């Protein structure tokens, strides 16, 4: 039997590869929007991810207790809503801008209830970043896309809280698998109603499978592997790099150009997120992105 340790990445490269994988998946998703739309693309991603996880993890549903169901169902619904709203935003605004605005959710959660002076700095930086991205700043950002991204960030904050509760009651792989099944519920009706799923071809299914791999299966696996040896705080600081990687991915893979003001907004929110994590007196939630 081959030594599985040969295939284990060190923690930091694993997290960085997970971030790159997620943003590469977002680029694939944006390529599917003209045919499948945001709802159809989200349905394919979450549906295929759920099927793969079911086949690998094989959770025993009959053994789940009522308290576990009460935790995992809202966790899955928040996961589905977060992904759907993010893709709705991604259909209207650049990838780097969408990810940057979405980060406001977990940043707000990290700062909730804080009365420390240093946290006022992080709030001010994040607020300046949002102001630089707002339509009134002259960057012609779609207002509905901006709203979708901020709503996705709100769902991300809720997902973090619910994932902590669920992780305390269920093993990680089981929680993610069962949660992914319920994540289809707020998405699939929109996918079916849009009629876009009837346009599926073998080629689109293959792209959907790659989307599920790069956006869900691979990054979840890499993050779980990294968290076995990496402190939660370090993980969260590294995850704060996601808006920068998203902006670079949008430029390299989609030809999306950001203005100087938009790049400044990305930097402001990244610094606010990393700073809030680094100076927090308590460990930040170790949760990946959209």
TrEMBL record:
**UniProt organism field:** Hymenobacter volaticus
Parts of the chain that traverse the membrane? 36-57, 69-87, 93-113, 120-137, 143-162, 174-192, 204-222, 234-254, 260-279
Q: How does it sit in the membrane?
A: Multi-pass membrane protein
Q: What is this protein called?
A: DMT family transporter
Annotated compartments: Membrane
Every copy of the EamA domain together lies at 144-274
Family in the record: Belongs to the EamA transporter family.
Q: What is the lineage of its organism?
A: Bacteria, Pseudomonadati, Bacteroidota, Cytophagia, Cytophagales
SUPFAM superfamilies in UniProt: Multidrug resistance efflux transporter EmrE
Q: Does the record bear Transmembrane helix in its keywords?
A: yes
User: What UniProt keywords are attached to this protein's entry?
Assistant: Membrane, Transmembrane, Transmembrane helix
